[in-house]
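Hey Z.,

So I finally got round to the zinc ion thing we talked about over coffee. Here's the setup:
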Amino acid sequence: MPLNNSQYDQLIRSYDAKQLKNQHDLEQRVRYAYLKVPRLREIDNAIASASVSQARKMLDGDTKALSSLKEQLAAYRKEREDLLVRYEFPADYFEPAYSCKDCKDTGFINGKRCHCFKQAAIDLVYTQSNLKDILIRENFSTFSYDYYSDEDINPATGLSSFATVKDAVEKCRDFILNFQSPGNFSNLYFYGDTGIGKTFLSNCIAKELLDAGYSVIYFTAFQLFDILSKGVFDKDEDAVATHQNIYTCDLLIIDDLGTELYNSFTTSQLFLCLNERILRKKSTIISTNLEMKQLADIYSERVLSRISSNYTIIKLFGRDIRLLKRSR
Ligand SMILES: [Zn+2]
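And the result:
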């Protein structure tokens, strides 16, 4: 992920701030625990001085004293554990609460950028922090089947809107479960009328994969073509660099395809983007109101053929949830 200097500094500062906050929170927790259970402070002091003596004995090569110290330390740790349980502190109460356990909020693992750093860079460059807020509201734990009825039957499939969405959710779960597993490469194409949960479902997937440490970029079709055109026509350096991420991130979500102003530029760029990601075996999710036939009419047969041979097509069916919510 190419970042300019000020973006890089901004990220590093945010990691520093995170570490400071972790430390501060931990100190507060420890202070509280010592107040509640003074014996804990004594134990911690004893552990600290025993550890220092242990190091000294180790240097002296005094094995006998060393083993008795080890026993002593183990006994202190056990007593501490028991006290924590007795006073109902969580087992990890004395551990820093990292937002990323993998790099302990340093942003790096063995000198390489952690997955959380890569995503933080994406969020910064594409100002996707709003996506995070949306994902707090829209994810599998808030997904509701209540808006899908058993009675609305899709004449084309004979399935109710409830059965259709249940099947769609299963496919989404499969997509997540097998994401980037060897020999598995899949993409999703959600289509159907406005307001029946296409974007919600792609958000559910985004949340799961982000939590699992994958890089995810979300764009409306309008934003995507806007960025692509900046790179091509303006030769804007940042925009050219971001092209690379659009082709290489683990998951690209293109929302509302067909609502942008399409022309020969968007048509060729869409093909290039989808094709490039297929070649790199990077997954894409498209949501749109467009039927397959319209897709071919607007974006060409080439785009249709890439999608129909590489994507799982999920047609949703039902009533506009936004209207249902309003009428309840
Ligand atoms: Zn990390």
